Amino acid sequence: MPEKPIQMNPHPSEKTIARLSLYRRCLRELAQGGSHHTYSHELAKLAGVTAAQVRRDLMVVGYDGSPRRGYEVKGLYQSIGQFLDGAIEQKAVLIGVGNLGRAILAYFHGKTPNLEIVAAFDNDPQKIDRVVMSCRCFSMTCIEEIIARERVQTAIITVPADEAQRVTDVVIQAGVQGILNFAPVRLQVPAGVFVEQMDMAVALQKVAYFSRQRQ
Amino acid sequence: MPEKPIQMNPHPSEKTIARLSLYRRCLRELAQGGSHHTYSHELAKLAGVTAAQVRRDLMVVGYDGSPRRGYEVKGLYQSIGQFLDGAIEQKAVLIGVGNLGRAILAYFHGKTPNLEIVAAFDNDPQKIDRVVMSCRCFSMTCIEEIIARERVQTAIITVPADEAQRVTDVVIQAGVQGILNFAPVRLQVPAGVFVEQMDMAVALQKVAYFSRQRQ
DNA sequence: TTAACAATGTTATTTATTTCACAAATAATA
DNA sequence: TATTATTTGTGAAATAAATAACATTGTTAA
Question: What is the SS3 string spanning B33-99?
Answer without folding.
Answer: CCCCEECHHHHHHHHCCCHHHHHHHHCCCCCCCECCCEEEHHHHHHHHHHHHHCCCCEEEEEECCCH
